[in-house]
């Protein structure tokens, strides 16, 4: 296939990997009031997809071996699209939870397969990964910023959630042209590094980092609304949180790749993110707070993805470290949105949840220092 077709296919699958999650965020308060959902139950709408991203990611390789890489992506896309479309027909709590689960399964399986797609079709052009990152940010930002205005114009939240299935239909038209064929010559399997202390540190860091991102994605708009802003304004500020990550996710890792200093940069991004949460606690302007949190998150995520590559000396080991950190990390991160909802149910306020986020970000900083110190210790030993 021509390269322009492959780029379009990559763009369309990537843009579908976040709207099922982020479209709910600006309407969460409305959905809660309409259906009488508790904060804990509402948190499941974000928790389930993220949890599935960790649980079902290891199955991606088996699915690829069985039906082929491209066909596996297509089937995942079908599942995401169906789950999203169903939200427009039945506005009930059980259906929302079921569709969150189904979409999460599709996203969880598709993510690793898309990485395989990039490696297979663009082996000498790693910069194509930027298309993946930007496309996900566009999908996430669009769903976050447009869902609330759609609700305001239509008057129902169900179509505002289901309309994102259109993106899936467009992608399916492109992806159905790919043949389903099994891969051959797979590399020798490398066991996950369960006995490595540094691998566990990276897993914990990835989990805490992602828990903050998904907690803000799920509850950022309700938190801003609790400060006196309407759903449209809150959704716009959440969109700013997502969109600011596009330049930071390009610029920060590029600077690290050129000049080094990965761990000082990680700490710097953590401080920036922490300052945004503290600004929300102190009743500062939420737009500035969301921009700071997004700027920090935009640097933390790609650098977290770089750590397994830095720590290993082969592609097989890097994949194993990444599978462990992301699989376990996403499971941990799924507890973030659920925890915010539970804290709100108990206290009736988001302030204690924000204090909890502050503590988690500080724990991230401690893990980064531990990784930095042990890395320097290893480097000095090698020099002796």
From TrEMBL:
Signal peptide: none annotated. Keywords: Membrane, Transmembrane, Transmembrane helix, Transport. Residues 2-377 form the Major facilitator superfamily (MFS) profile domain. InterPro entries: MFS, MFS_Cyanate_Porter, MFS_dom, MFS_trans_sf. The keyword Membrane applies. Gene3D superfamilies: MFS general substrate transporter like domains (1.20.1250.20). It is found in: Cell membrane. It is a multi-pass membrane protein. The chain crosses the membrane at residues 38-60, 72-90, 96-118, 130-151, 157-178, 199-221, 227-247, 259-281, 287-309, 321-344, 350-375. This is MFS transporter. It comes from Jeotgalibacillus haloalkalitolerans.
């Amino acid at each position: 296939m021509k390269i322009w077709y492959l780029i379009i296919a990559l763009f369309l699958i990537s843009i579908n990997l976040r709207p099922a999650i982020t479209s709910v965020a600006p309407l969460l308060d409305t959905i809660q009031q309409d259906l009488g959902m508790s904060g804990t139950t509402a948190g499941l709408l974000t928790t389930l997809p993220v949890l599935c991203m960790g649980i079902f990611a290891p199955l991606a390789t088996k699915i690829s071996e069985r039906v082929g890489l491209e066909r596996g992506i297509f089937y995942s896309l079908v599942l995401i699209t169906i789950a999203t479309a169903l939200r427009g027909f039945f506005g009930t709590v059980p259906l929302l939870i079921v569709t969150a689960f189904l979409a999460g399964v599709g996203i969880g399986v598709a993510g690793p397969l898309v990485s395989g797609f990039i490696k297979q079709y663009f082996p000498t052009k790693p910069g194509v990964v930027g298309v993946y990152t930007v496309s996900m940010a566009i999908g996430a930002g669009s769903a976050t910023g447009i869902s609330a205005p759609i609700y305001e114009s239509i008057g129902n939240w169900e179509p505002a959630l289901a309309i994102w299935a259109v993106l899936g239909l467009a992608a399916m038209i492109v992806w159905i042209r790919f043949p389903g064929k099994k891969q051959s010559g797979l590399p020798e399997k490398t066991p996950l590094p369960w006995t490595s202390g540094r691998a566990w540190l990276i897993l914990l860091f990835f989990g805490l980092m992602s828990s903050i991102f998904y907690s803000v994605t799920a509850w950022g708009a309700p938190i801003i609304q609790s400060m006196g802003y309407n759903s449209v304004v809150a959704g716009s500020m959440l969109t700013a949180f997502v969109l600011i990550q596009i330049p930071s996710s390009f610029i920060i890792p590029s600077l690290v790749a050129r000049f080094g200093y990965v761990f000082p940069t990680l700490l710097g991004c953590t401080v920036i993110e922490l300052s945004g949460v503290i600004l929300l606690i102190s009743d500062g302007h939420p737009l500035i707070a969301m921009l700071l949190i997004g700027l920090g998150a935009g640097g933390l995520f790609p650098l977290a993805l770089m750590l397994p590559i830095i720590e290993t000396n082969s592609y097989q080991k890097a994949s194993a470290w990444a599978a462990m950190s992301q699989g376990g990390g996403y499971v941990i991160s799924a507890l973030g949105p659920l925890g915010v909802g539970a804290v709100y149910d108990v206290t009736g306020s988001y302030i204690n949840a924000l204090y909890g986020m502050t503590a988690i970000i500080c724990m991230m900083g401690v893990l980064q220092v531990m990784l930095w110190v042990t890395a320097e210790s290893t480097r000095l030993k090698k020099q002796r």
